[in-house]
Each structure stands twice: as structure tokens, then as C-alpha cells.
């Protein structure tokens, strides 16, 4: 008999599938459910964040934090003085989240958003320094447009490199994008440091080098170039329009074009995509390159299109870029949803200073923890896809107001109890059968007799309870019919009919009480009681025989396998030995099954199937009750039956 299979690979595959579905979140749910799940994730995230603050401030400093004061502080970040900052981060988070969502839809994890955003800083500020721009005059709009176009193009190439590595060399996109992040950081530190500037920028004078670069900073000197207010406003307006157009365009592509269908199929399953004719290499390269280009656009609004253009803190990948992952997951990878999740995160991100003022006085680390909690819950919003508390309590209220529910619930529990009782009895009988031998035969017979008597007694008791529960269910059904008739009579304002039905209901209650108090008998005999059971009289018990057969199987397998592995054998002789091994396995496995080696497992599977069928049967009954209660309520309001 073969050993039980290792369950670890199966468990790992389930976890892997769940994680894959979590990242892709393709069109398996309605838009309404996706929105609801995101809102629930935000609610629980904010609730947990407030619990943390209440404990942190209440226990540590004996301060009560008013939750409405927190919302007020966040709302104050949307004042006119903070308008430019709000728009900046909304555009940055919006473009980067859409870039992330695009790759996730194709089943690709673009972790290179930070580096791809930094590409814009490298390209744009290289152009500004190359053409010797300074803060004496604003940078011309056409130069800004050129830097934007070149930045997007270079970011596209960076994404294309990662896509090519994935498509043709099977290098995982997470590895390649992380490596590219640090390569970009390396380029940035090489280009924008005062120590390396004389070599890289050999056309600059020492004064210009000091003007553009400073050793005490990672990157360029803040404010060495300026952008006119009108140019900034123009880019912001164009960015907002472009962001909305991009979001709706990508949503349209995903839902209504063959390209979008191919991308989604690629995300769901690579093999399925191939079957429908998807060129997975081309799609992979296109998606990662396009995602990088959009991330480059986000970088432009972070580094360049601001009141003080600056490219600093370049010794590591831009940490802000990683926020795009959580923002995208909060929107369940919906391009349009990313607009709302970006706005929400912008509100939190830009309210840091307000939260540190009177009356809250939050510490910077408190704000980091709060943000992390909210983002963590937001990233797990998929867990709330089936979370419908209002619908749950509405359904439960309809069931709790109906006596049929309680009658059927009792019947369901009793049937489950019967299933468990039968399984327990079968396992005990199997234990006696497998251990019985010539020596303990008489004792085993006595145990079996006692077990059968006890089982028959318990089973009869359960059967009587089931019969009584069925009567309750039947009477509850009749009561509902009377209640429905009463609703009709009340709707028609027929007083005579109302009085008659009320009397019928009263009589029904008395009759139900009478028949339930009456002694109930049942002539039903279960198959388990009728079944004739025999015990082993041989010297060796079935348990011992099973052990001997397994040893025999192992011995025969080793014997024939050693012959089969002899290098002097011909191919036909090797095949013959393996056929002998197979024949012996079949013979011994047949004997093992006759001895009951799989009986306990079969009993367990039968119990599972019976409980599942029982649960499914009553689930349909409960759904029918809810439907009838809903129809009755509609009729009472003026509907038609």
C-alpha cells in the first residue's frame, strides 16, 4: 500500500493561486462589490488606526483623542493655501497607481515604479544643466515639454528592458525591476554629485558646478532653476485632464477591446492566453514598457512641475513610488478606482503637519503607523469582497421572524447528529473487525453485541427526534400559509376574513401543541442496524495480516526492482520485471482492500459528503423562506403575488 501523499505541495499551490488572484483581481466581481470591499477595507483600516491612537495616547499620556478632530485636521489640508501640494501629490499618486494597476492586470508585478519615476529627474535635470538654465529666468515651456517627452521615452525603454528579460530570458520582473531601480540610483549619484561633476560635466566651470551641485546634498541644489506660475498651472491642468483621460481610456481598453482582453487573459493564465492566440512575449514587453512610461509621467509631476524643481535624496530608490502598490490594490487594480484611492491617500499624506498641531499633537511616528495600518488594510481589500453585513442581517431578520427557520434548523442539526452517530458506529465496528482474531473472538462478539444495542438505542432516539422535528416543520409551513392569507385579508380590509383566519391560527397553535405533546413512534429501521457484521476467527487479526502484506509488498518490490535495474538486462526483460512489480502491487492492494485498510478513510469521506449534502439541502430551504418573506412584504406594500 502506498504511503499517504504529502499535503504541503497542495497547500502551497492553493496559497500561490490565492496570491495570484489577489494581485490580478480580474473581472470576477461586479464593480459594486469591488467598491464596497474597498470602502470596508478603509473603514476597518481607520478603525484599527484609531484604536492604536486611543491606546497610544490614552494609556501612555492619558489623553483622549476625538476622532472627529482627526477628520477635521485631514479636511483642513484641502484649503486654498495647500492647493498646489494637493494637486501635485494627486497627480503623482494617480499616475503611479495606474502604472501599477496596468501591470497587475497582466499578472506582472512592476516593483520598478520608484526607479522609473527617478528617470524623469535624471533626464530633465540633465537637460536643464546641459543648456545652462538657472533661476534668473524661468525655463521655457518648450524645454519642459522636451524634457517630459524624453523622460517618458527613457522610462519606456527601462520598462522595455525588464519586459524583454521576462519575455525571452524568463527573468522574473520583480528581480529585474529591483535591479534596474538600483542601476538608475547609480546613474543618478554619478551624474549629480559635485565630486564627479568635473568628469561628467566637463564643460562646466567650477562656479557652475558649485551652483548646480552641493556635497552636503544628494542631487542638485534646490531652486537652481525656476518654472513660471502660468507654466506650472498649465501643466497641472493638462495633467489632471490627462490623468482622467488615461484612466478612462485604459478602463475602456480593458473592457471593450481585444487588446484589453488579451492583457486580462495573460493575467489570468499564461497558458489560456496562448490558447486564444495571445503573443505573451509581446504583451509582457508592451505592458511593462507602458507601465514604466506612465510612471515616468508621475515622476515629472514629482520632480519638475512644482514651484521649486529639485532632484534630491538620490542615494536610494524613491520611496514614494512604492506607495503606488497599496493605492492600486486599494482600487482593486481599477484605473478609475485608482483616481479615488489616490485622492484618499493624498488627503492622508498632505495632512501630516495638521495632525501634529493642536489639539492632536501626533508624533511623526504615530502618523507613519496610522498610514501603514490604513494602507495594510487597504491592500487586503480583497478579503472584504464577500463582506455584506447589511445584507446578512436583513436575511437573518427574515429568517428569525419565521418559525419555519427554527424548525428546519433543529431538523438540520438532528440529521447532522445522525450522520456523526452512524460514522462513529462504523469506525468502532471497523476497529473491532480489524483487531478480532481466534484468541479474542468471543470477547469481540460480546463487544459488538453491546455496541449494536447501544447504537440502536441512540439511533432510535435520534430518529424519534427527527420525526418530531419534521412535524414541527410541516406545522410551521401551514402556519406561514395562514399568515400569508392574513396579510391578503388585511390588504383587502376584509374584517370577516381577518377574524376567521386569526381563529384558524389560534386553532393551529393548539393543534400543533397537541400533536407535539403526543408520544411519537417510528417503525423505520436504518440500513446500519440491518447490516450483518462478521468478525475474523483466524489466528492473525486483519491488522496483523495487513502488516504482513505490506512487508510482503515491500520485499517483492525490492526483489523485482533489483532485477530490473541490472544493467545486463535487455529492455524487454526490464519491462517484464516492472510488469511483475505492478501485478504484485495490484494483487496485494486487492487483498488489503478486502481486509478493510481503506474503511476508515471511506467512512470519513462518506461523512463529509453526507454533511455537505445535508447543509446544501437546508440552505435551499432557507433561501426559499427568505424569498417567500420578501414576496409577502412586497405584497403587503401593494405588490402582486
From TrEMBL:
CDD domains (alphabetical): TM_PBP1_transp_TpRbsC_like
Main location class: membrane
Keyword Metal-binding attributed: no
Domain of life of the native organism: Bacteria
Gene Ontology CC: plasma membrane
InterPro entries: ABC_transp_permease
Keyword vocabulary terms for this entry: Cell membrane, Membrane, Sugar transport, Transmembrane, Transmembrane helix, Transport
TM region(s), chain numbering: 35-55, 86-104, 111-129, 141-162, 174-192, 235-256, 283-304, 324-348, 369-387
Pfam families assigned to the protein according to its UniProt record, in alphabetical order: BPD_transp_2
Keyword Transmembrane helix belongs to the record: yes
Molecular function, one GO term: transmembrane transporter activity
Subcellular location as annotated: Cell membrane
Topology within the bilayer: Multi-pass membrane protein
The protein's name: Simple sugar transport system permease protein
